[in-house]
Amino acid sequence: MKALVTGGAGFIGSHIADRLLERGYHVRVVDSLQPRVHPKGKPAWVKPEIEFIHGDVRDKDVMKRAMEGVEIISHQAAYQDYMPDFSTFLSTNATSTALIMELIVEMKLDVKKVAVASSQAAYGEGRYTCPEHGPFESRGRSLEQLERAEWEVKCPTCGRDSDNLLLEEHMHNPFNAYALSKLFEEMTALRLGRLHGIPATAFRYSITQGPRQSLYNSYSGVNRIFCLRLLHDLPPVIYEDGMQKRDYVHIDDVVAANLLAFDDPRTDGEPFNVGSGRATTVREFAAELTKMMDKDIAPSIPGEFRMGDNRHSVSSIEKLKALGWAPKRTLSDIFADYLAWIQGFGDVGDYFREADKLMREAGAVRAVKPS
What we know:
Elements: E1 2-6, H1 11-22, E2 26-31, E3 51-54, H2 60-67, E4 72-75, H3 86-106, E5 113-119, E6 127-130, E7 134-137, H4 143-147, E8 163-164, H5 177-196, E9 200-205, E10 207-209, H6 222-231, E11 245-246, E12 248-250, H7 251-263, E13 270-274, E14 280-281, H8 282-292, E15 304-306, H9 318-321, H10 331-343, H11 352-361, E16 365-367
Parallel strand pairs: 1-2, 1-4, 2-3, 4-5, 5-9, 9-13, 10-12
Antiparallel strand pairs: 6-7, 6-8, 11-14, 15-16
Helix pairs in contact: 1-7, 2-3, 3-5, 8-10
């Protein structure tokens, strides 16, 4: 049996590739080794038993070679960044998915499942509820609102602060290039899958954390940034006021969801949230990590915000739990496993400085205006 994992040198893809190897698959990986993620080339964790193809998932010749004879395709390759090259998001994430479906039809492949990596970002600001006027779909926070340090989503009728609702799969409300590309990716896989009889599943990942998360790129997560700063005895830098709620999920739970999709036809044609189902504020995250690292360093909250960030994002995981999946790892497990990995990594430089510099140069990080 042959399986293809795109982005298989990366964080999520490499863990899925390892588990498929354990299941006895011949695993083929396609990865472009994007320099901002893999500045040192192919990482050592790509096992020698894996058939590795260095190439771009948008290249038809590369993908024809990669897809030859495969029965399972795990499409984890993605462009993630805060850079304003909007067309790269769409071509890498959405057009590559269309190419995969195109080649399955063209090559008459007997593919048992295509699982694609969507994102919680597809929800945008999601849905909120006003104590007086009830639920509404947020259109996001304006630049002017953020510059006034008014962080909460406002009711469009009365202007009061509103409470976020859990994100459910029937919803979507993307408003940045990455979010749009991920929604288009999952729609391409699911709808072309239904049309052409190709079993496909889409996973809207919450903030996935754990070992092998890139130390280098600006998008790879708060865990990486906070850990590196604390290891250099610097305070974690928190955007907005730190009360934004997030949903953090361990890489092992994400891999388990993907394995379920390969086995269970009830996942065909459906999107699923993969998260913890638990809200954690950024301040809580920083405090728990600082304590685990035995540091006595208070976070810095400089009155800055990041363009395109959501205020609150917490997913409902009931749909996937109904199929027998449930998260088994906690936030403490995320910290323990990541710290064990990063401390054995060797070269733990202050990579957060370059990532921060690039985001500021691109206008992704901005300061509130004085009142």
